[in-house]
Design a protein that fits this description.
By secondary structure, the protein is mainly beta. 6% of the residues lie in helices and 38% in strands. It is built from one helix and five strands; from the N terminus they run βββββα. β1 and β2 (20-28) form a beta hairpin.
Length: 79
């Protein structure tokens, strides 16, 4: 089991060049039925449009630049 990153966490992805801010968890891209661990937007730009959403999984994260707000509920959430 691994801990999931909280909403607001800023990460870079393996082979990525731009920081991303996580704003959703356990989402599908709408293009397929696959469920991704995270959906993020460009940082610091924010959510520009659906065309800029980035869907990825936990193992795609290279570095955590900032950890978002955590609650007790987040502490209990694992996968």
């Amino acid at each position: 089991m691994k801990k999931i990153y909280p909403i607001g966490t800023v990460v870079t992805l393996v082979d990525g060049t731009k920081p991303l801010m996580i704003y959703g968890r356990f989402q599908n891209s709408g293009d397929s039925e696959e469920i991704y661990d995270y959906v993020a937007c460009l940082y610091p730009e924010g959510n520009i449009s659906d065309d800029y959403n980035v869907f990825f999984n936990h193992e795609d994260v290279d570095k955590v630049l900032f950890t978002g707000y955590q609650t007790e509920e987040d502490e209990k959430t694992n996968f």
